[in-house]
Amino acid sequence: MRGTCYTAGVALLAAGALGGCQSRDSDTATRDSTAAGAQTAAANTPTVNVTAKDFAFEAPARVPAGRITMQLVNNGTELHHAQLVRLEEGKTLADLSQAMKSHGPPPAWLKFVGGPNAVPPGKNSNATAVLEPGRYAYLCFVWGADKVMHVAKGMVREFEVVDSASSGASELPAADITIDLRDYDFQLSQPLTPGRKTFLVTNSGPQPHELALIKLAPGKTVEDIARYIEGGMKGAPPGEPIGGVVGLDKGARGTFSAELEAGNYGLMCFIPDAKDGKLHLEHGMMKTFKVG
Predict the structure, then answer these.
(1) Residue 2 falls within a domain, yes or no?
(2) Confidence (pLDDT) at 168
(3) Going residue by residue through the chain (292 aa), what tens digit of pLDDT does each one get?
(4) Structural domain tally of the chain?
(5) What phi and psi values does residue 23 have, to the nearest 5 degrees?
């Protein structure tokens, strides 16, 4: 099970009645149009392949600016994700390394802009973001049984976002579901049904949040996931991460797609609180919901 944690030091690295009057045919046409638009947007969005292994990222050194999809493949033996951060004010990995030695708040030049969330070995996840030109890095904050974060084992990769002829659009693609991140809640726009869905995730909270999507084992809840992590992740996990969007700063947005089967799922935020250092899930930022 995923044991992601952004501790203080490592965080441095880190429509109403009118809608009711629409006919069923109109609803169907709208859904079909939205799906077609999403497919077109996906086809027009450059994809960056990011391979995670123990303990490094393999990814291009330069990517085009604009809308871009990051496709994460986990070729390691542990859970991995790819937290995407922007290094502003000309900062580099050397500055990032120096910052992690401090225990204060994250520096203003470090921006959390999403990225594909954790999946087990052999699986993949994705996230789409609109990136401005500049210097960025992938980080992995996941830890294993030894409780040492992968970023501390060298799982960091810097890259540059540049304007080019292949730069993508300046807007995120259409989504089937919107999820609003708050202090401390996940607000879904509508109930979920089986199938492949695209989610638009927006952080409306005053501090960074993430969305980890977990397929729960039968009869399990997000509380079982929290207890499993607190107990040292021993035995069979009560669920399997299937993606999501890693940390987003206030106002930041991103999308991701996932295949949903009928069953129970969980949403969780593992980022520590700016006030007391407790994980946001300990403040209640976790939700169990049913698909189908």
Answers:
(1) no
(2) 63
(3) 444 333 333 333 332 222 233 333 333 333 343 344 444 445 578 899 999 999 999 999 999 999 999 999 999 999 999 999 999 989 988 888 888 777 667 788 999 999 999 999 999 999 999 999 999 999 999 987 788 889 989 999 999 999 876 666 789 999 999 999 999 999 999 999 999 999 999 999 999 999 999 999 999 999 999 998 888 788 889 999 999 999 999 999 999 999 999 999 999 999 999 888 899 999 999 999 999 9
(4) 1
(5) -80, 165
Which CATH number does the domain housing residue 285 bear?
Answer: 2.60.40.420
Whole-angstrom distance, CA of residue 144 vs CA of residue 131 = 30
Is 1 part of any domain?
Answer: no
CB distance 41 to 279 below 8 Å: no
Q: How far is CA 44 from the centre of its chain?
A: 21
pLDDT at 169: 76
Q: Which contacts of 101-107 are long-range, i.e. CB under 8 A and separated by 24 or more positions?
A: 101/9, 102/9, 102/12, 103/8, 103/9, 103/12, 104/8, 104/12, 105/11, 105/12, 105/274, 106/11, 106/12, 106/14, 107/12
H helix or E strand, kind and range, residue 224: helix 222-230
Residue type, 178: T
Contact 231, 237 (CB under 8 A): no
CB-CB contact of 201 with 181 (8 Å): yes
Domain ranges, residue 245: 8-17+24-291
Evaluate whether residue 202 is within a structural domain: yes
- H/E element holding 57? strand 56-58
Q: Is 279 exposed, middle or buried (0-12, 13-18, 19+ CB in 10 A)?
A: buried
Residue 171 covered by a domain: yes
Upper half-sphere CA count for residue 50 (Cβ side, 13 Å): 38
Please say whether the beta carbons of 283 and 154 come within 8 A. no
Q: What tokens does 62 get?
A: 């330069």
Q: Report residue 101: phi and psi, to 5°.
A: -80, -10
